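In response to reviewer comment 3 from the previous cycle, which asked for concrete evidence that the modeling workflow produces usable outputs, we include below a single protein chain processed end to end. The sequence was submitted unchanged, and the resulting structure tokens are shown without manual editing.
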Amino acid sequence: MQGIAGRVALITGGASGIGAGLVEAFARAGAKVIFADIQAEAGAAVAQAIKGTVFQLADLREDRDIDHLVGKAESAFGGIYFLINAAATYADKGFESDRAMWLNGFDTNLIGHVMLAKRAHALLCRSPSPSIVYFSSEAAHVGLTGRWIYPATKAAIEQVTRSQALDLAPDRIRVNAVLPGWTEKPWHKTAPPEVKDHYADMANRLHMIGRLGTIDEVAGAVLFLCSEHAGFITGSCLRVDGGHSALGPQGKEKHLPTQARKDAGVKYQSDVN
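The workflow returned the following structure tokens.
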């Protein structure tokens, strides 16, 4: 994609899952990648496996760590072109969640990333085509049993994406979000057969396309939003969910009211005309 090679991407949550896939995808596209995570061993392993990338141990709940992370990006690569905010915590007990859990969820998923964007602002402004990408979820739009914190943080992320895009437009900084569907992670490959079957069944029911998404597909959407091809896109949330969020409550099941009436022996004038 145009506008990726040779430019600097800072990625949070890059030690595992989708975050690690983003590190690999941006490096493969020729970007200079620095990534952050609280998982020291996993982060070091990713940096060793993907040559040329730089890992920085950082906790987004700590302003000092955010300062060090941005400073490292500047010293290692001279700046930041793309800020990809993929780190997240899923800790959530719904009604049973206490104040500390709520504060932790918002501090990690939202506030830490907002502080990172604020701290990186000057470097982004120096870039010819700066871009910020957040991660949302279908959880932002629906009720979830036993999960209150995570959905609330994702809904807040979408609102911040819109407002931040508006306020940063004069600085030429585009701000968007991606909304992945159920995505296959590396651990799915080694999961017990019953777990694999559960996810396969769920993907078939919940995704129009009938399968789990791949990390490469999510990474491709993020690359697009950062590229010059998306130069007129900001304040948007790109759904990479296999049609999941477009499904209604019927899912993929057929419901034909006219045929149901006929089967019940009910006749209407419209049925005989």
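The mean pLDDT is 93. We consider this sufficient to address the reviewer's concern, and the full set will be provided in the supplementary archive.
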